[in-house]
Design goal:
8 strands; 4-stranded parallel beta sheet; 12 helices; two-stranded parallel ribbon; Rossmann fold; binds zinc ion; 47% helix; 2 domains
Length: 301
């Protein structure tokens, strides 16, 4: 793999020098979150190799790279990241990159972001980075990824554009399924015993997210937050608590017990667990599971 990347870098330099040499091997792409890796893999097709920078199960908000991760990144053409402080460790990592230059693509750049306090009452003045849970924003990100790949591999442009259009059609289908599936539900309340990753999804389909942790999972909820959540659920007759599969369900069970309700899983999709990766779980599959959970939990017709 290392030698492949050196060949790639050498051919890129040759391209820059002559302006005409085609890329001799595949474009090597690194992504910080699972959805960006999935989108890049679909757009690049046979002309690219994609990898997640984080190991399975690692939490992107709080992860810390090691020297081996920096070397791995240095050998690639393109780094896809979300930005809006989802990856607070990334600026230091990019600064530490030895010699070679890696192109970077920030997915949130130019998008209208949600402010944290709009979504959950936490994180005033902080922007919500979880843009991949709005499938219309994903379509815009996918187009930009195709442009980025075309800059590195100009001969591949027709392939990247065609693959991007196919992926965007799937995203539009998914969006329509969510819109239809979440119309006419008894409840609009996503009460989340986790961090507030679903603000964009809630905004798009007219739902209300109430999250116990704010925008990042590193701060523990205070007892007062728990009491308020119990009170909120009781007042509004809410009997379903959603939780993320990547965190222990203790808090959600406690909350569900307090309100005499039950818990259902939602996947925010930052990363996969080892088991999900081994099973080859895909982005669309995770989102369809989310739709089933939401329809169940919100009492949709
Ligand atoms: Zn998150």
């Amino acid at each position: 793999m290392k030698s492949l990347c050196r060949v790639l870098l050498a051919s890129t330099l040759a391209l820059a020098a002559t302006g005409s040499a085609p890329l001799a091997a595949k474009v090597r792409i690194m992504a910080t979150v699972f959805p960006l890796r999935e989108f890049a893999a679909a757009v690049a097709g046979d002309r690219g190799e994609t990898e997640l920078l984080l190991p399975p199960g690692a939490v992107v908000h709080t992860w810390q790279p090691r020297p081996g991760d920096i070397r791995k990144l240095a050998e690639c053409h393109l780094l896809l990241f979300i930005g809006a402080n989802l990856e607070p460790w990334l600026p230091g990592m990019v600064k530490a990159l030895p010699g070679g230059k890696v192109r970077t693509f920030e997915a949130t750049e130019g998008l209208a972001l949600i402010e944290g306090d709009e979504a959950s009452g936490h994180d005033h003045g902080v922007m919500d980075p979880h843009v991949w849970l709005d499938f219309e924003l994903d379509a815009r990100i996918v187009r930009k990824i195709a442009d980025e790949l075309s800059l590195i591999d100009p001969d591949g442009r027709p392939v990247f554009m065609a693959n991007a259009e196919k992926l965007i059609a799937r995203l539009r289908d998914l969006d329509a399924k969510f819109r239809n599936g979440l119309a006419g539900c008894r409840s609009k309340d996503i009460v989340l015993a986790g961090h507030g990753a679903f603000g964009y999804l809630a905004r798009r389909y007219g739902l209300v997210q109430t999250a116990l942790y704010g925008l990042s999972p590193d701060a523990q909820p205070r007892p007062l937050d728990l009491m308020n959540a119990v009170d909120y659920c009781r007042r509004r007759g809410i009997r379903t608590i959603f939780f993320e599969n990547s965190v222990a369900p203790d808090l959600s069970r406690t909350l569900a017990r307090e309100i005499g309700g039950r818990i259902l899983v939602l996947h925010a999709g930052h990363n996969l667990t080892r088991d999900e990766q081994d099973r080859g779980v895909g982005f669309f599959e995770l989102m369809e599971e989310n739709l089933n959970s939401l329809r169940d939990g919100l009492g949709c017709r």
